[in-house]
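Archive entry. Fields below.
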Amino acid sequence: MVRDDVVRLSHGAGGVLTKQLVEKVFLKHLKDRTLLELEDSAVLDGLRCGRLAFTTDSYVVSPLFFPGGDIGKLSISGTVNDLAAVGARPLYISAGFIIEEGLPYDVLGKVARSMAATAKRAGVKIVTADTKVVEHGKADGLFINTAGVGVVEGASLGRGCIRKGDAVIASGTMGDHGATILLSRKRDEVRFDTNIKSDCAPLNGMLLPVYKEFGSGVHWVRDVTRGGLFTILNEAVDDSRLDVEVSEREIPVDPEVRSVCELLGLDPFYLANEGKVVLIVDCRIADLVIGRLKAHRYGKDSAVIGRVKKGDGKVYVETVTGGSRLADSLLDDPVPRIC
Amino acid sequence: MVRDDVVRLSHGAGGVLTKQLVEKVFLKHLKDRTLLELEDSAVLDGLRCGRLAFTTDSYVVSPLFFPGGDIGKLSISGTVNDLAAVGARPLYISAGFIIEEGLPYDVLGKVARSMAATAKRAGVKIVTADTKVVEHGKADGLFINTAGVGVVEGASLGRGCIRKGDAVIASGTMGDHGATILLSRKRDEVRFDTNIKSDCAPLNGMLLPVYKEFGSGVHWVRDVTRGGLFTILNEAVDDSRLDVEVSEREIPVDPEVRSVCELLGLDPFYLANEGKVVLIVDCRIADLVIGRLKAHRYGKDSAVIGRVKKGDGKVYVETVTGGSRLADSLLDDPVPRIC
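PREDICTED_STRUCTURE:
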């Protein structure tokens, strides 16, 4: 008997069965008017633009569902955050699904519902999509690619804007997402009673008002994902004549995440977040920026964690014991497939 | 010994190794100035817009290389064609790579080179990208997602523009890509000495001048991919008060593709192309459109293959023996993973 509640290879053929899958599972949740037209491309009217932001990310996180989120929430949040990080207002999202044959419809439905809810919260529209199916054993359940289009409304952000003396801000606790994924995978090995959950969230609602208020005082923003805080800070000053110096004591870390990291021998500053950013801003507005961030639910633990200095493209950490050490980019991967 | 010529899981970690992979393999070929900035999103200046087209497709074709193309050429052509099909000038492409651990660098390099060459020919820029790596056995070598952004310059195209009496045009021979992929997979089983190759190509160079010259006389365009000609024609009139009637005798098919289909018991009108479109146009300009298409290398075999009539959303084929039969959308999949 052919099961009618799982995805089959012929659901990827582009014919009647693809249409059924799309209607039954995706369109039920993703109801955008443009998407429903099912044309080859979404045509988006009345865009006021000039400077467009465009980004893409594939999501291969394992497991698909984890405390605080799932691949669907992640696939919208991550792409929204990439747009917001360059100063853009995220508007439109595309979704490409690569499905392993045998994936239950209800898994796909839960993911689609989560994407729809996250898109709604972030104020973006999922306007175009694609579905492919591969044989059992040729993918791992579900991979999602999202691309995003936004409009840059304010001042330019970029590495080139970073100046000596700038303040370095973390918008919250570091490593939450990476620690959550790691614990989800080790649930059978590690008994650890914890409330740790992923910080996965769309940050445009927190960031855009900051850009609007502080304009060119905000110099560089990056969401802290793969590679963690220290890798992202290296990207800020790499190949430049600047260093970043951060104080370990000032970097917010959830106490439970810290315990998990100690237990497993990991450094939270190389673990990913999916709902945190680093901002490098003019030091004169740092406290005001912190005030604005703290007023938002996703920024309540934000803190100034360091300064930009003259240097040669390195990141230094002042340790809790008062010493200083070099913090390189991530070399080996502590937690693969976290996003 | 760790091999340094294949992709490893830690190449997906977002740190030093990801940077090395990106620089060694991708940036060597994909040299766009915006891409090279490696920011979270590409920021695209000076776009004259108003009506933007946005599309996405994932490519999971197996094998990765085939006569006439490869997954790289396909991933640019397919997305360019989706934009051109809605009347847009394709401008920017994003690329998301999902790589199976162990994939040789030189495979990835060949694919990247092919993407760069196809993008150049199509006049589009690959401006933003992402790389993920999954464990051996969790993907099939390489999957690529591309999303595309274009600007709609001319008249609107869409199902709603199709009128009774319109002419249906195929821009060339049907089924070439599907037959090529099928033969590539069966090379060990089927001895068939043939020159068949995929028609995989970007069609914007052929289509945009047609839109410009004939304006609102062109009503609907769709690239003939998964599901083949008959499935695509069903999409044109599905749920409408129109039928499409095509003449089997008039539909261009390469003689070798026809032989392969007879040998394997397949219908070329359900096999995919990756470099052909169907155009539905005002019948008064059909011959002029054919003239313009034939003048282009990708349209030399174009032909009027049928008409739009009053009806109830069906596609009918006048067979070579003079009868008429209903041509439904594709139900089962004759050749999975063709794109």
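CURATOR_NOTE: Chain A touches chain B through 85 residues (CB under 8 Å).
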